[in-house]
Design goal:
The structure is a single chain. The radius of gyration is 22 Å and the shape is globular. The longest helix is centred in the N-terminal third of the chain and has 19 residues, at 2-20. The strands form 2 sheets. Strands 1-2-3-8-5-6 form a 6-stranded mixed β-sheet. The protein has a two-stranded antiparallel ribbon with strand order 4-7. The model is unreliable at 22-26 (pLDDT under 50). The chain is of the alpha+beta class and 148 residues long. The chain is 20% helix and 33% strand. The chain has one domain (25-137): Protein of unknown function DUF192 (Jelly Rolls), CATH 2.60.120.
Amino acid sequence: MKKWNWIIVLIVVLLLVIIFVPRNSEEKINSISVSFENVSINAEIADTPEKIERGLMYRESLGKNEGMLFIFWEEKETNFWMKNTLIPLDMIFLNKDGEIVNIVENAVPCNSSNCILYLSEVPVKYVIEVNAGFVKENEIEVGERGEF
């Protein structure tokens, strides 16, 4: 009978651990500050294929100076679309040196499978997505450098 008591105690302890020990069900979100001449952005980092693919899909809002920084393994021409993105965005394309090489303003949300492709036009290493109007409001221009 004593053996069964220990087994019951062990089962109870295991159940308590399963119930009360917090689990990390969501992936840790890393962010970085990216500074331009007139403004800084607190950017969530998308640096894995899964994070890059999901991007800002399904987000209902984005803070005033917040965005997402997409980091590619190598500098390359790329394109973005707004599938399942709920808010309009500006896209800032940067080369490996952090120089802005292209800007797309006011990319519109798309909830179909026939979405507009927004092209980098030249090889890029980074793309930053921010709220639509951010680029104009902060006078961000091609040729400017971002500091990470």
